[in-house]
Amino acid sequence: MIERRTAAFTATLLLALGGCMAGGHPVGPAPQVMIPTPSFINPGTVAGLDGFSQAVKAGSTMYISPQVSLDSAGRIVGEHDIAAQTTQALANLATVLEIGRVTTGDIVQLNVYLVSPSTADYRTVHDLIAAFLPGPQRPAITLLGVQSLPMPGLLVAIGAVSTVRGQFLERQQNRR
């Protein structure tokens, strides 16, 4: 009895699949793949370097351009002071994250560029970043010494890659 049901189910399944396939290929148009349209984040409250978007959301990822120590008027904060510049760059990064609706806990990659750093500069920046990021799980971090940044007087630039959680819930709420 069970064998007969199994055979009947298998025959029905094969018949149904055969109706969907012709010569081993799907019948009808190819399924549509939804490629998310990138959204560009350029808040007027965070001064940035000309020619760059502050951040770009693409799918479930947000790419944040390196943030520097500019105040909202475009002036360097903490000239010749690596700690003050790092603090301002992290504050700018936090603002861009907030506008993009993600948190520091969503950061998966942090890229830090330091102009002609000393060992003490690396330690200062490391300590400030450790205080900025929550919990024991830290993102992958790259610290690079560079010769210069695009604007004279800048000592540090901090960029990030972040996941975007809850985007599908947000999308469903917007449809209602």
Structural class: alpha+beta
Please outline the major beta sheet: 6 strands, mixed
Cα(first) to Cα(last) distance is 50 Å
What's the rounded overall pLDDT mean?
A: 82
- Radius of gyration equals 25 Å
User: Strand fraction band?
Assistant: 15-25%
Strand order of the largest sheet: 3-4-5-8-6-7
- Secondary-structure element string: HEEEEEHEHEEH
Could you list the spans in which at least 5 consecutive residues all have pLDDT below 50?
Answer: 13-17, 168-176
Structure in words:
By secondary structure, this protein is of the alpha+beta class. 34% of the residues lie in helices and 24% in strands. It contains four helices and eight strands. Helix 2 packs parallel to helix 3. The chain is globular, with a radius of gyration of 25 Å.
Give a brief outline of the structure.
This protein is an alpha+beta fold and 176 residues long. The chain is 34% helix and 24% strand.
Properties at a glance:
176 residues, 6-stranded mixed beta sheet, 8 strands, 34% helix, 24% strand, globular
Describe the secondary structure blueprint for this structure.
Elements: H1 2-20, E1 21-22, E2 25-26, E3 39-41, E4 55-58, E5 61-67, H2 82-99, E6 107-115, H3 119-132, E7 140-146, E8 156-163, H4 167-175
Parallel strand pairs: 6-7
Antiparallel strand pairs: 1-2, 3-4, 4-5, 5-8, 6-8
